[in-house]
Amino acid sequence: xxxxxxxxxxxxxxxxxxxxxxxxxxxxxxxxxxxxxxxxxxxxxxxxxxxxxxxxxxxxxxxxxxxxxxxxxxxxxxxxxxxxxxxxxxxxxxxxxxxxxxxxxxxxxxxxxxxxxxxxxxxxxxxxxxxxxxxxxxxxxxxxxxxxxxxxxxxxxxxxxxxxxxxxxxxxxxxxxxxxxxxxxxxxxxxxxxxxxxxxxxxxxxxxxxxxxxxxxxxxxxxxxxxxxxxxxxxxxxxxxxxxxxxxxxxxxxxxxxxxxxxxxxxxxxxxxxxxxxxxxxxxxxxxxxxxxxxxxxxxxxxxxxxxxxxxxxxxxxxxxxxxxxxxxxxxxxxxxxxxxxxxxxxxxxxxxxxxxxxxxxxxxxxxxxxxxxxxxxxxxxxxxxxxxxxxxxxxxxxxxxxxxxxxxxxxxxxxxxxxxxxxxxxxxxxxxxxxxxxxxxxxxxxxxxxxxxxxxxxxxxxxxxxxxxxxxxxxxxxxxxxxxxxxxxxxxxxxxxxxxxxxxxxxxxxxxxxxxxxxxxxxxxxxxxxxxxxxxxxxxxxxxxxxxxxxxxxxxxxxxxxxxxxxxxxxxxxxxxxxxxxxxxxxxxxxxxxxxxxxxxxxxxxxxxxxxxxxxxxxxxxxxxxxxxxxxxxxxxxxxxxxxxxxxxxxxxxxxxxxxxxxxxxxxxxxxxxxxxxxxxxxxxxxxxxxxxxxxxxxxxxxxxxxxxxxxxxxxxxxxxxxxxxxxxxxxxxxxxxxxxxxxxxxxxxxxxxxxxxxxxxxxxxxxxxxxxxxxxxxxxxxxxxxxxxxxxxxxxxxxxxxxxxxxxxxxxxxxxxxxxxxxxxxxxxxxxxxxxxxxxxxxx
Length: 846
Fold this sequence. Notes:
The protein is an alpha+beta fold.
């Protein structure tokens, strides 16, 4: 998935496949947890009962995209999407009718009816009929194509498709037509024609696999049982209608006004005229991008910029439009404003799962891509300005609130805001990337798109007004040689803009995409932007400086609270001993493979990203930790087995003392090192020196246990549980309410104006390593103290802390004292927290 530059539509496909396997994940989780192991940790078995509030049948309000269609005016009877599918030879009518019945029963949008009212039918609403209201055999027609090929077959397909579109009538509840082209002993075809009110591009990725599964079940004599649906289309429509009036949605109005009201480039003079600029008068330019360019465009380019395919396509489009406007002397500001179509299946409401819901979910919203100050010539030549442009446009796209869902709500479903937004100038350019389809003749299996029609098709009434003066619809299909090609169809109103100008713009866009592929292949191209690092606030300049100074970094993260304190102490006492270096010493007996143990140490660092962190503070607004992608474990091997006992012990002590005194460079990963000391033929000591900023005492047994397991498994981690990344804890910290925390601590600390000092301050004293004094209570006293705690319902820790408080009160002469207590700091709400490696402990005032 991620190797293919996974876009949001592909994520929904992945979610659907998981659901068919009985696992529940969300499209958002696919992007948040970008490995199979990480996804497995958040996946749940599907066993929750259906939401009792979700009644799929009944009246429903219009969704924003439907209200947009209503506002356009004109006839909509033939407004549809269609797909022509391969059928296996010999498939029977009973199987096809039964599979269609299963679809109609399961997917309620296929039983949709458009209810019109008013003198001219201008008032629209929806009605979802109950299961069984649409009979499969009444929407299935058989056309014999046995023996037909070439032009004769094409003519039969075209005539049947036109007739099927003509039979559609959303007002009559007829939103699906199926035509079975029976090839008898030959491979047949199935044409599905569905009114756009009931389907979108993502829905086909649900319907076609469901149809194939239903046919397969019926052919083997089983019942056609489809996977669970999730949230109904009707409930979704009601959720949107309610959300359109929420305070949070109303707060988005300022963003949408800024997007539309500020100056922008104009592609043409004049405006659309509904009676003149209709679908039947529109002209089209279709181009295909070579597979050699499309391949990296969909994979390596988005990966280089840590973005999605829309970031790439729209960045190139904005540059191409800006350069085209300069060539053609078009007026307006430096920004390109366009209407962007999205899949609209936002995870904006609790308990809503649309991954297997069929319907028209499309969102349509304006975006502003500001090219002011960019060197267009350098960018379109593939130079450094192109990388800067992609990063800028990517951030502008990510600044759109909630993926653009709110625009349609405010524009069409909220009367108060609809008037405001209706007064803004509409974008002249529309853009829609439909994702990947298996068209173009690549698919050869049953229920693949048939080669005669390519990928997703459709059409509308010739008298329908066009939505934009210029519109781009792009999708990726399999080319003649099997490689992916980007196919873009530019539709335009000839009364507003000439075809030669549109073709010039289309070719300019492809040239920009080609330049982007060449740019991304250069060393050092790409990089992160601030939105890629939600846990830390860094400027673009700071990010690029870190990427330049630390090539191969994997992530940039904030510091945990105690990590900030330890970093300060390490920098403050840089010339003295570092008291925060800890040593873990393992005594090993028996035959030992030193090379295998070293490989296990490398595997341990590969397993835990927190062990590959370095720390940087200079020239930054806040200190950060930089996780490097590939780090080898520093390793030293020393053989003392040839020394006598006294010399060996003396040398061993000196080695450990020297290791303990050796500083770590906090700016260079890793901040741990391994020293393997052989003391006899079958006896070793492994000294692991690690800076406390990386790990706490809880982590030490985890590290030693995993190291020895990895050694026993020859570096393989299959015997170990999945790692819960330290990043999850830092995300939890970032989500805490700091204001509430400050308020909670202010009350018990009120009145304290000085610390409890155990010694006088002496800034001239040189820092030294701490010494320890160990005292023990007798067994009898320990038992008595434990018994006292139990009888009073206390922990032993509470009793010890109370005794310490009484002692401090006596020593300081105060009846109110404060001192530090160490806590594990591992929040129980994080799954796997008990086996995480990192610094969690903290010192709290008591």
